[in-house]
Design goal:
The chain is 57% helix and 5% strand. The chain is built from 10 helices and 3 strands. It has a 3-stranded parallel sheet. Helix 2 crosses helix 3 and helix 3 packs antiparallel against helix 4. It is globular.
Length: 183
């Protein structure tokens, strides 16, 4: 399917997804659009800026949906919003900042993923994100802050490879389709 503008493509893909029709588009394949990747980036940002309430809220919201707890979502968020980073990590991920500081950037992310229960099922976005971190770590000193700056520069262009021969609607703008020949 070809649309004139990107926002039209997003609207069509949302409608198709809501109706259970598989889609492929450059927007849906972006790493930054994956909830799991955004969560890990928010968590890394929260670790380097623990007083940022917006990041804390993002992390808590993810945990309220994905980590088992005995509270209603609103109660979970209210109970945890007053806690500091160290207490939150120890309570919900069973990790301490001291333990995390022993690891390289790549290992930190792996540990965070494991303790967040995001490594239990294969996720193409997480695998590509880990590859991106590994490649970054091979070329740079791998501290979190430097990585997050690099991520901000690259996040709008990084995407997973689109699967070959998948039976799905391919959505693109007319500008992306120029020069392409379809059977």
């Amino acid at each position: 399917m070809i649309t004139r503008k990107k926002d039209q493509g997003i609207a069509v893909s949302k409608l198709l997804t809501e109706n259970g029709i598989p889609i492929i588009s450059s927007e849906t394949l972006l790493l930054n659009n994956a909830e799991s990747v955004r969560y890990i980036v928010d968590l890394l940002n929260f670790i380097v800026t623990p007083l940022n309430e917006e990041l804390k809220a993002n992390v808590l919201f993810f945990w309220s949906n994905h980590i088992p707890h005995n509270h209603e979502k609103h109660d979970f968020l209210a109970l945890n919003s007053k806690l500091d980073l160290e207490t939150l990590l120890e309570t919900h991920l069973k990790l301490s900042l001291a333990d995390l500081s022993k690891y390289s950037l790549y290992e930190k992310v792996e540990v965070l993923l494991k303790h967040s229960k995001l490594m239990e099922e294969p996720d193409a976005y997480i695998i590509f994100f880990l590859d991106f971190i590994y490649q970054f770590s091979q070329k740079n000193q791998g501290d979190i802050f430097t990585f997050l700056n690099y991520w901000e520069q690259k996040k709008d262009t990084l995407s997973i490879s689109s699967p070959e021969n998948q039976n799905a609607v391919n959505i693109m703008t007319i500008h992306k389709s120029k020069g392409l020949e379809f059977p």
